[in-house]
Design brief:
This protein is of the alpha+beta class. It has one helix spanning 46-55; strands at residues 12-16, 19-23. Strands 1-2 form a two-stranded antiparallel ribbon. The chain is elongated and about 60 Å long. The N and C termini lie far apart (59 Å). The model has no long low-confidence stretch (mean pLDDT 87).
Length: 56
């Protein structure tokens, strides 16, 4: 991969020990795998929040 998949600028290879990745200094692209699935807490309803408030 010689060019950035986002902006087609030249990529720079970075390495530390045995780990290596490529990055683009123009747009910030980094060839690092990420998880894009949101994992969050269940949202509390207003009714449950008010009941908890008045009970406590």
């Amino acid at each position: 991969m010689d060019q950035c998949p986002r902006c087609q600028s030249p990529l720079e290879e970075l390495s530390l020990g045995e780990a290596a990745t490529v990055t683009c200094s123009r747009c910030g692209y980094a060839d690092v795998p990420v998880e894009h699935e949101r994992v969050g807490e269940e949202v509390e309803s207003w009714r449950d929040a008010l009941n908890r408030f008045y009970e406590g």
